[in-house]
């Protein structure tokens, strides 16, 4: 039974990973003129968030998709001061980002987009399963803390595909925080044990 659960977890992980990768091919961000950014996205899931942020992480534009499907938007950047900006498409399993530079000459999309795979947290009873796609084999650090900030355990890894089950069946009732660091990114999952 344990082996069957393990196989099912791997199949779930691979299906979501390849599904997220297939979705990326249908996204396009381009310029229309010198000051307008055209965003054409398809096959988006409900809950996807579109963000336009400055270099300090301040959100200048945010759109939460209540329904899935297509998304088309024109962002006029004429009133935005010169600087570096980021357009982010934040999905459930990954965030795709375009780096945009505005100068006195106009707006440019710098290089191609990059994708940050987000971890998958799935709790079944008192077991938290953590899955992380890590194609660059970046260092992964997982820290489990209680609601007072006391570290209960820490795990280090750098596998291409990381999978770990965390057993909360022997801890007292309360709130716990699983902090996962992958490269410069941090993801936090709250676990409530009754």
Automatic annotation (TrEMBL):
| InterPro entries, sorted | Secre_tail (IPR026444)
Pfam families attached here? Por_Secre_tail (PF18962)
Instruction: Give the keywords, sorted.
Output: Signal
Cite the Secretion system C-terminal sorting domain residue spans from the record: 126-193
Name of this chain's protein: Secretion system C-terminal sorting domain-containing protein
Source species:
Salinimicrobium tongyeongense
Taxon lineage: Bacteria, Pseudomonadati, Bacteroidota, Flavobacteriia, Flavobacteriales
């Amino acid at each position: 039974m344990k082996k069957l659960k393990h196989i099912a977890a791997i199949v779930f992980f691979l299906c979501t990973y390849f599904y997220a990768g297939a979705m990326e091919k249908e996204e396009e961000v381009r310029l229309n003129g010198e000051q307008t950014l055209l965003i054409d996205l398809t096959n988006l899931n409900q809950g996807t968030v579109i963000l336009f942020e400055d270099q300090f992480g301040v959100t200048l534009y945010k759109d939460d998709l209540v329904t899935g499907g297509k998304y088309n938007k024109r962002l006029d950047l004429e009133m935005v001061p010169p600087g570096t900006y980021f357009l982010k498409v934040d999905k459930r399993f990954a965030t795709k980002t375009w780096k945009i530079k505005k100068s006195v000459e106009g707006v440019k999309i710098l290089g191609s987009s990059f994708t940050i795979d987000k971890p998958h947290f799935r709790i079944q009873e008192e077991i938290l399963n953590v899955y992380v796609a890590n194609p660059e084999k970046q260092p992964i650090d997982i820290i489990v803390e209680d609601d007072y900030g006391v570290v209960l355990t820490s795990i280090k890894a750098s596998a291409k595909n990381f999978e770990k089950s965390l057993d909360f069946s022997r801890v007292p009732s309360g709130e716990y925080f699983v902090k996962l660091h992958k490269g410069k990114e941090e993801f936090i999952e709250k676990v409530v044990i009754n």
